[in-house]
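Morning, I've got a small favour to ask if you have a moment. I've dropped the whole record in just underneath, so have a look.
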Amino acid sequence: LPAQGSLLYLDALHAAFPQALASRGTALLSWSPGGARAPGGWPLPTLYCTPAEAGALPSRAAALRAQLLFALQERALHVLEAGLAAELLDALAMLRDGWPGLARDLALGRLSPQPGLPEGVRGRLQALLAPDAARAAELRAECARGFEGIVRRLWPRLEVVVVSTAHGAEQLYCDALRQADCQGLPFYCPFYQVAGALLGVNLWPEEPAPRFLLCPDWAFCEFLPCPAEEQLQTVLLGELWEGREYGLVLTARPGQYRCCAGEVLRVSGFHKQCPVVEPVRRESQVLSVRGESIPEERFCQSLCRAVGMWPGARLVDYVCVESALLGASSGACAPHYEVFVELRGLRDLSEGQRYKLDQCLQEDFPIYKSFRFKGSIGPLRLHLVGAGAFARLREALGSPLPMPRVLREERLLRLIQGTVIS
């Protein structure tokens, strides 16, 4: 990460939230098994109350639990930072399911043994803890009240949640956190990174939708106008038009490789002659059993609309699979979508409720409606999975990268099928 990017981020964060850079005022929840590091990469270790070694454990679950324990120890947090919104979501799920054990560890100043936590590392981390019976009692009292808005109740001075990605596949997690655990807190996504290269920085922490200033000397970017013109020719930074969408072509160090990144950006304005962009979609993430090409983010919008018709339901996570990947288990009907959803607040769905999603898709996508009418695409099949199924799936990935919602890996698909409850 260029030092200029880190400094711009810190300056923007401090301007919007003056206490955000207080010593030990930031808790980090991020799994980096290849080596402990903060996602932002800035050289200010005194910001963190979280030991770097806690994020480098071989197990993602063990790393997040250890980091959560150190975060709970500090009542006066100002910033809660996560490498991915999914990591924050999973850490708070651990709090919801295991708060009695966390409270015991806080009261005793210990780190309980668990899978994926080597004894030597556990000893070193435990030496940094101190018994705090009062904080443990506060944790028990707040968790006993329920978990709506739990984050601000546990850390009353908290000002902002920082996540490395708040768009695309991670937007669903950010929305779920805003609605429940992190009610009332702004989410700030400071950096725009593609293919390992930093391209831009968000200078507007208090705005709900992230916008990124593209910095010209961090990587060489070219842009393909969308929709594609007859003469397929890239344009450069100085040739972009406000309000238009462009596909990103990236040449990044190291290696100086040139590739179509699969990212579509919208130019929302300019800041001192440099374009400010909003990520719109990833072109590679589409559903297509008959060539209908439904973008992932628009499918998610239809799903959220259907969930809104199921009283009391809150969407936790989902994946959608083209039926061909399921083989014989998908039945003998025409190719169709198989959707696996995890809900909170609702245990089962009637056939009429399940059909709402297929109905929403037909209303939102005329081409899908046409194929359904002709019978060349069969009825969508909706499956409910058990609580925590997607957290276990992310653990099985063995990688901190976010999981795409259009699932294509057979190994992960088998894990999801094993959690279906209806």
